[in-house]
Automatic annotation (TrEMBL):
One of its GO terms (cellular component) is membrane. This is Amino acid transporter. It comes from Hyaloscypha hepaticicola. Pfam families: AA_permease_2. It comes from the Eukaryota.
Length: 523
């Protein structure tokens, strides 16, 4: 779509410190519509809220149990943090060069030499699918966690499929209301989330270490116990154990969709993105180490209600449902914050793609409420899509489980496309001019590592957790993703091909762009 020309008088907020941001966004082809009410720290806190360490690692922890136990949990965390930091650094360069909410599909369009429109359309739809399904996985995982918490007091309780769906619907609607009407307070919510998460990890560390009702393991056992008997994958079992850590940081690139809500995004977005893994990874060690040191027998954990290991572990280690509930309550709080933050980011992705006429009903979903300062219809669409997909759980829990893997795979592929184009096609000419970049030596290295890890990650999340494979244990992620892309392709040839011309062409922002001197309270 053609970009509208903006003047300083129409910038949301109207302050003189917005002039540079207006000029920068106009240079990228867009008119500012969102309020820039976020700082570097609140952006970092939102990134960490999306990672949601206790939930991100704890929610799918059952996979690490199948993956061998303590060795996979501890060593797998370190390995994934190193690999995902390479992904974060690679994305940070692109986000600095093109700091817009459009994200990966915009980057692909600008740096590709040919077939720009088709490449950006494909990248955009994979990016959108990833945003929707990873958000769905958080909200449905939240519902499963609530169900497993009830089972701590009522061991015979097992939520029916429709009960889980109703809990899931309630979470989606509550999140929608908060994200729609609370935009002014969301930066503060992200700050509270950071404090809540840090305090929760500290309390869990102390409580598990002191109580340890099922005993404490030796240091060697805590860090090195490895049991391959549960997955059926033999020597490959360790890699199955990487799934929780990979899931935790899978959405790290979603923060790029917040670029139009922070001052000087060419610096602050890449900083927040690149700091997430070191900060979150360090905090995560204090969460997983006490779990590894006090872990009950693996064979018992595999039978945990709702396949949620954390409530079961906390219940046993604390020696009572009350003690376990106290710790699970902390994780539930982290998950609620994550649900809010990730819904905000997913809605901005939806809005940005609609702004470029790439989805059905684009004109409606591209509207930003002047009163609320948020894309209300994009928020509603993001929520409705999740709720519709959640209904699949009524028919097949295996099919629904595939959406969790689809979220990770789709996001990873949407990251890989612009990184690969930049490295192999563009030879890093564009990102080397970004105000924030990794340099001529480190840059290519992290790009290669990122692409290698993403390639393996896609395979990993397409595989079943355990063998033998049955109709129930089969991972349908690749089938679901292909189905989504088939629908996107049909939309492209039926209608979008005539109206979607890609995002506005732009030379991006370079190191020659003058830095923004802020005079507002947002530093």
């Amino acid at each position: 779509m053609d970009a509208e020309k903006a003047s300083p008088e129409v910038v949301p907020g109207g302050d003189s410190d917005d002039v540079h941001d207006l000029d920068s966004l106009t240079a990228l082809g867009y008119t500012p519509e969102l309020r820039r009410n976020r700082s570097l720290f609140t952006l970092l806190f939102q990134t960490l809220a999306i990672a949601a360490i206790p939930y991100g690692e704890g929610g799918p922890l059952i996979s690490a149990i199948y993956g061998g136990g303590q060795l996979s949990i501890f060593l797998g965390w370190l390995v994934v943090c190193l690999l995902d930091e390479c992904v974060a650094l690679s994305l940070s360069e692109l986000a600095s060069r093109y700091p817009t909410s459009a994200g990966p599909y915009y980057w692909s369009f600008q740096i590709a030499k040919s077939n720009k429109t088709v490449l950006s359309f494909i990248t955009g739809w994979i990016w959108l699918i990833g945003n929707w399904t990873i958000t769905l996985s958080v909200n449905f995982g939240f519902a499963s966690l609530i169900s497993a918490t009830v089972a701590m007091y009522h061991p015979d309780f097992a939520a029916n499929d429709w009960q889980l769906v109703l809990i899931f619907f309630a979470i989606c609607l509550i999140t929608l209301v908060i994200c729609t009407f609370g935009n002014t307070f969301l930066p503060m919510v992200d700050t509270i989330c950071a404090a809540w998460t840090a305090l929760s990890i500290l309390i869990i560390l102390i409580a598990l270490s002191v109580k340890a009702d099922v005993g404490r393991h030796s240091a060697a056992y805590t860090l090195g116990h490895y049991d391959t008997s549960f997955s059926g994958w033999g020597g490959f079992t360790f890699f199955i154990g990487l799934l929780p850590a990979a899931y935790t940081f899978s959405a790290i690139g979603m923060i790029s969709s917040m670029a139009e809500e922070v001052h000087d995004p060419a610096i602050k977005v890449p900083k927040a993105m690149s700091l997430c893994v070191p900060v979150g990874g360090t905090a995560g060690l204090f969460f997983i180490l006490p779990i590894c040191a006090t872990l009950p027998p693996l064979a018992d954990i595999i039978t945990a209600p709702s396949a949620q290991a954390i409530p079961y572990i906390f219940n046993l280690v604390m020696g009572s449902p009350g003690g376990g509930l106290g710790l699970v309550f902390l994780v539930l709080g982290v998950t609620m914050f994550c649900s809010i933050s990730i819904t905000v980011a997913a809605s901005r992705c939806t809005w940005a793609f609609a702004r470029d006429d790439a989805i059905p009903g684009a004109k409606l979903f591209a509207i930003v409420s002047k009163r609320l300062g948020v894309p209300v219809y994009a928020l509603i669409l993001t929520t409705v899509v999740q709720m519709l997909l959640g209904l699949i759980n009524l028919g097949s829990s295996s099919a629904f489980t595939a959406f969790v893997s689809v979220g990770v795979i789709a996001l990873a592929v949407s990251y890989a496309i612009p990184i690969a184009i930049s490295l192999l096609w563009n030879h890093r000419r564009e990102v080397s001019q970004a105000r924030w970049n990794c340099g001529r030596i480190i840059g290519p290295i992290v790009n290669v590592v990122a692409l290698g890890w993403i390639s393996f990650e896609v395979v990993l999340f397409s595989m079943p957790t355990a063998l033998p494979v049955t109709a129930i244990t089969m991972n349908y992620a690749s089938v679901v993703l292909v189905g989504f892309m088939a629908m996107a392709a049909a939309w492209y040839f039926i209608y979008a091909k005539r109206v979607y011309k890609g995002p506005p062409a732009s030379d991006g922002l370079s190191a020659d762009t003058p830095p923004h001197t802020e005079i507002s309270s947002q530093k």
